[in-house]
Write a structure and sequence with these properties.
By secondary structure, this protein is α/β, with parallel strands linked by helices. The chain has one domain: 5'-nuclease (Rossmann fold, 3-Layer(aba) Sandwich), CATH 3.40.50.1010.
Length: 130
Amino acid sequence: MVVDTNVFLETMLNQERADECEAFLMKIAVGELSVVVSRFSIHAIEAIIGKGEMIGRFLRDVNSSNGLRMYDTDTEDEIAVTLFLETSKLDFDGALQYFVAKKLGAESIISFDRGIDNLDIKRLEPIQVI
């Protein structure tokens, strides 16, 4: 499973489905679920939350999460993502999540982005996995 940026942000910004995401992320933290997150997502979250204390807490949580593995894209990966962008209706973040999932052979992407629904990798929401 690849986890999209929006799942982390839902909790960090205390949005409508924060409790569901928190329960999902807790299962990852204790190692009950194994997932992958792109390094791009980590940096996007840092940029969005923008406050040093929150970023530090987030990074410590990521670092200590037993079921979380990070995937680093390289420039060639990101060029491939831009080529996919030309034929899809996804934004860069969604396209990158899809690319990582395809590259790693993931069966699903955990996301609230409905644009992923029309692709050949299943989109699940956190509630469907907890």
